[in-house]
Amino acid sequence: GTLKGQAGDKYHKTWANYFIKFLDEYAKHNVTFWAVTVQNEPLAALLMHPQFPTIVFTAAQQRDFVVHDLGPALARSPHRTRLIILDDQRIHLPHWAKVVLSNATAARYVAGVGVHWYLDGIVPASCSLEATHKLFPNHFLLYTEACSG
Predict the structure, then answer these.
(1) CA separation for the pair 70, 46 (Å, rounded)
(2) pLDDT 10s digits, 86-121
(3) Core-most of 111, 114, 115, 122, by most CB within 10 Å?
């Protein structure tokens, strides 16, 4: 499904604050997080059965959520947790990164781009990873999910 409303509203702020509460609760037990992703596979629910456990974000919606809600919430928090965008198939690169990281405010909040390997055979690394790295060399590229079987 999708979040009700649009970035900057009470629903998006509540979702951003949930991230902070999550980090806060773990911190009470001396567990810290190096990074979080904005959303695992934000386009999967559009391509798969509607019960797929994700919140749908387009690149523009994810950018706006980072700019207006999640980025500021993390920045105000005591946590030094990095923020990773996309967290989906590399076939969405470099488009996704262009939409999000071309916004200077979003780029300030985002540390890197997370990718999954499931559709790697469809798009060469030179067209996705290398192209993205050339455009945004100050943001890391990290495989965040891979499984088989």
Answers:
(1) 23
(2) 999 999 999 999 999 999 999 999 999 999 999 999
(3) 115
